[in-house]
Write a structure and sequence with these properties.
The chain is of the alpha+beta class and 126 residues long. 40% of the residues lie in helices and 24% in strands.
Length: 126
């Protein structure tokens, strides 16, 4: 399962984090931090993970534009996986990912002031 979290550096500039969580083990498999994350960034992260860990039977997400983009859907189908979208307005259907995102906020984001994107990336991805 995967989802986005947004945060800001000290100067108010937005960061986005793509978090990928293993639905079975609840392990965070990847966090990508950037100012902007688009469909090709989602494919890049998933490609790396699928190469390392194998292709899952499905990948769960909400209906954000980056996840429902034709390029992402086509790529997921081409590698032999399926998309499992949660119903709009139903974050509890992706509860483990939402729980991880809340803990990330509580344990890291709310306790740190990031001055640069690079600093945020190093701390958050660690």
């Amino acid at each position: 399962m995967y989802d986005f979290v947004e945060h800001r550096t000290h100067n108010g500039r937005k960061n986005r984090m793509l978090n990928v969580i293993d639905e079975f083990t609840r392990e965070c498999l990847a966090i990508r931090v950037s100012r902007k994350l688009k469909a090709h960034d989602v494919i890049d992260v998933l490609s790396d993970l699928f190469s390392l860990r194998g292709v899952p039977g499905h990948i769960r997400s909400d209906n954000e534009p980056e996840f429902i983009a034709r390029s992402v859907r086509d790529w997921i189908a081409a590698v032999g996986s399926e998309t499992a979208y949660i119903a709009p307005g139903s974050p509890w259907e992706n509860g483990d990912c939402e729980s991880f995102n809340a803990k990330l906020r509580d344990e890291v984001l709310n306790g740190e002031v990031f001055y640069t994107l690079e600093e945020a990336s190093v701390v958050i991805e660690h």
